[in-house]
Amino acid sequence: MNVTHLECANCHLRHEANTLQNLCVECGKPLLVRYNLKKAAETLTKESLKSRAENLWRYAEVLPVEHAKNIVSFGEGFTPLFKTERLAATLSVKLNLFIKDESVNPTQSFKARGMSAAVSMAKELGVKKVAAPSAGNAGGALAAYASRAGMESFIFMPRDTPPANIVECEQVGANVTLVDGLITDCGKIVAERKEKEGWFDVSTLKEPYRVEGKKTMGYELAEQFDWSLPDVIMYPTGGGTGLIGMWKAFDEMETMGLIDSQRPRMVSVQSIGCAPIVKAFHAGEVFADEFPNAHTVASGLRVPKAIGDFLILDALRKSGGTAVAVSDEDLVVAVKEIGKLEGLFCAPEGAACLPALREMIEQNLVKEDETVVIFNTGAGVKYLECF
Question: Distance (Å, rounded) from C-alpha 125 to C-alpha 46?
Answer without folding.
Answer: 31
